[in-house]
Amino acid sequence: MIEENLNRIKSELPSGVKLVAVSKFHPMEAILEAYQAGQTVFGENRPQELATKAVQLPQDIEWHFLGHLQTNKLKMVLPYATLVQSVDSVHLLQAIDNWGSNNDKVISVLLELHIGAEETKQGFHEEEILDILFHAEDYKNIRFCGLMGMASHTDDLEVIHADFERIDTFMAYLVDLFPDIEDFNQLSIGMSDDWPVAVQHGSTMVRIGTAIFGAREY
User: Fold this and answer.
1) pLDDT at residue 216 is higher than 80
2) 3-state class of 13 per DSSP?
């Protein structure tokens, strides 16, 4: 079933859009099944879970961290994550930069823009991201790769389109404004329920869990 789900989604994804299989709460056997079907990029939300899986699963897997990251958990994530998609505060960004400096590593990150209606969601506002990127050279051990966002949790397609249009427009503005930030070209929007809408609005990376693995195991 996992292989069938993967093949169906990949057949519908436009070329150039990376599929991140969100494997949080799913057992290693399920990840291995997806891996054996050709999927090599996986996303995790919990530091301990990522650290455990990264050590025990095939070493050519590309891990993305997707959840809220506390600064005291960096050592569980940064040695393994190819990309931290969910940087949502200056405090976290500075801590990642410091960890990178101390460990002689440049960390690739996405800045999380708060675009959904829910007040509980993490993320920056547009002006905060602008301020960070105007001072990008201050972060010697950070590679700024783009933006991440989540649409409002709703069945209203107009609202979802509007959310994704907002982040797509802002992304294009940033690319024009900061041409010297070479790797700033990734837009991670779209999940199991709304990824077809996201790819209409410039998504280069979709984060899909349930539609691949089924309901989570808690």
Assistant:
1) no
2) coil
